Hints:
- By secondary structure, the protein is an alpha/beta fold.
- The protein has helices spanning 12-25, 27-35, 43-55, 76-91, 108-114, 128-140, 186-190, 203-216, 221-240, and strands at residues 3-6, 38-41, 64-69, 96-100, 146-152, 157-165, 171-175, 195-200, 248-251.
- Helix content is 42%, strand content 19%.
- A hairpin with a 4-residue loop joins strand 5 (146-152) and strand 6 (157-165).
- Helix 3 crosses helix 4.
Amino acid sequence: MHVDVHGGHTSENGRAAAGRRSAKTGGAAGAAEAAGVAEVATPDDLVARALGLLHGPGSGSGRVILGLAGPPAAGKSTLARHLVDAVVRQEGPEAAAHLPLDGFHLANVQLDRLGLRARKGAPETFDSAGYLALLRRVTNERFHDIYVPDFDRALDEPVAARHVIRPHTRLVVTEGNYLAAPEAPWTTARALFRELWYIDADDDLRHRRLIDRHTGGGQDHQAAALRIAANDHPNGEYVRAGRDTCSRLVRVPDLPAAADGRSVP
């Protein structure tokens, strides 16, 4: 399985950021990112990048938050779990942890109260302030366990305390659709990340994954397709506009679908 990693930016800020990354990483890879040339890497290369955030120049001894943004069904949670598992294997138990934005979905009872059930997954259907508050705890609190919610697709509801960030956890991988969005509080949250990667995938592949996701949740094929057209697709287009704020663009094809009831790609 290969991963296409693109470091290019189109904005002035993006070009400046790319230049800074080139200075940090050096060599052909850094020059390619600065020039906006696609770099091809394996998942192990991405693990090495994550480990570099812990041990590379300027890493320090504090806790590092790596963000993964991207449209629905791009593969964010699958990549996050891959990175966490690999870092734990190399650095020791609980050295890394997963913090999914999906855990901050509003419960169905709240969506019904707000008239937002049909928009589930849109920015306004998340407790974004709660997500930011937990990120601040992760950044500032090092002496207590921090419990992290997730989303259970079998229940179609968020569940509390599925993950835990221990005092000795060094790397926290957080992922969600809207981490590159231009509005508050996402912009405030983004300031807490060491890096933010944009996870992309072909639209046809994402469509197939979304069909599988929704039909697996009990909808028929037609209802699933309508939900994608009315909700998932507009959300994905909104997310796509934030690519230029990210440190790098990552394409991860052919990821396996999750089958454990947790967040899926």
